[in-house]
Amino acid sequence: MLKVGVFGVGHLGNFHLNNWKEIGSVKIIGFYDPSDENSNAAIEKYGLKRFKNAAELLDECDVADIVAPTTMHHELCKMAILKSKHVFVEKPLANTMDEAREIVKLTKEANIKLQVGHVERFNAAFLALKDYSLKPMFIEVHRLAQFNPRGTDVSVILDLMIHDIDIILSLVQSNVKNVYANGVNVLSDTPDIANVRIEFDNGSVANLTSSRISMKKMRKMRLFQKDSYISIDFLDKKTEVIKYKTPSDTNVFTFDIETNTGKKTIAIAAPQIHENNAIKEELQSFVDSITNDSPVVVSEIDGYRAMEVAHIILEKINRNQIN
């Protein structure tokens, strides 16, 4: 049985604790959090042991679950990796690119498992497309949230947009060619709303809009590729595929259209959504990777690449703001 230590028992840390309790092959041995308020609440709710420092907890666990603020990711990851502990770390991987590079280097040298918490990879609406061939040439994304001071220690790029950057990079297997970006600081010292265009070497283009000062919530992605259009609603867990009908298509809504090459039949499919707990599923997948010695779903390289693009976007925004 794997022994898990949780580093950070704030808002998201509590979600992790609740889900670790439901995974039968692990045991939570305790937590470390410098906040007395967070710690006392966790002790009262979960009856767990509070360790007085990170090093002591690392000595007792097999897996470090790092749910601390982003500024602490590098220090905690480095300590855990140097003690040969497996690491699950929330996104973004680190606070700076130099920190991220060192984590990638140390992970490779230590031969441990490290997974980054890009939870949208486990969203039921996205998982519903696992049997589809996704090769988008144009992507449009809107991720809007109401203002919450809790997330303003980083920009909207590293707070919200990085989810979509990670998914886009996983779908478009090509290098980034150009990035165009604009953003505005509204209620915090970092960009709260941003519009970004990413162009890839293979011709694919992604347009992304993220805001954390919206009146309503939205998490939608639309994929356009040869002969099909795919809509993913990460918030309401709905997925739709519109394409030319093939003989293998069953249980789909169809209608005919006239084209220059004659009549075509359009099929509209709604892939089955299997409701899930995305956080529990990503933690379970990490445990499975450790026990089966198989690749993690979101590696340190994936986390690094998402951060790299996010920081290019931030540089473009800063340059445009200065100009």
Summarize this structure briefly.
The chain is of the alpha/beta class.
Explain what you see.
- With 323 residues, the protein is an alpha/beta fold.
- It has two domains: 2-112, 3-Layer(aba) Sandwich (Rossmann fold); 122-276 and 310-322, Dihydrodipicolinate Reductase, domain 2, CATH 3.30.360.
- It has nine helices and 14 strands.
- Helix 1 (11-20) packs across helix 8 (278-292).
CATH superfamily of the largest domain: Dihydrodipicolinate Reductase, domain 2
Q: Helix count, per DSSP?
A: 9
Percent helix, as a range, is 25-40%
Q: What is the fold-level CATH name, i.e. the topology of the largest domain?
A: Dihydrodipicolinate Reductase, domain 2
Distance between the termini: 56 Å
**Main beta sheet strand tally, sense and closure:** 9 strands, mixed
Name the CATH architecture of the largest domain: 2-Layer Sandwich
Strand order of the largest sheet: 7-8-9-6-10-11-12-14-13
Radius of gyration, in Å, reads: 21 Å
Strand content: 25-35%
For the record, the CATH class of the largest domain is Alpha Beta
Calculate the mean pLDDT score and round it: 93
Question: What does the overall shape look like?
Answer: globular
Count of the separate structural domains:
2
- Would you identify the regions where 5 or more consecutive residues have pLDDT less than 50? none
Given helix and strand content, the structural type is alpha/beta
Q: Write the element-wise H/E pattern from the N-terminal end onward.
A: EHEHHEHEHEHEHEEEEEEEEHH
How many beta-strand elements? 14
